[in-house]
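Provenance

Sequences were taken from public entries as deposited. Structures were produced by running a predictor on each sequence independently, with no templates supplied. The record for Response regulatory domain-containing protein from Paraburkholderia metrosideri is shown for reference.
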Amino acid sequence: MMPRIDGVELCRRLKADVAMAGIPVVMLSAALPPHVSERLWDVLLLKPAPIGQLIKVIHSLLDESHPEVHEYSCEH
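Predicted structure for Response regulatory domain-containing protein:
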């Protein structure tokens, strides 16, 4: 649990901010979030998500969104 706001509200705020709206979001939750009509996250994983699955999702999102970041991180 997050203090003050929940994950759905955090995602709403991120997507409403022009500077943050294009950043991929991985929602990691212990329970299914309530039905929302807007697309607020790119991937939803339920806890306990295997670490390997989380890593694959992150790599996939980096490949799709920011290939230059992924290429840089692989060189080091």
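The first helix runs from residue 7 to 16.
Confidence is low (pLDDT under 50) at residues 69-76.
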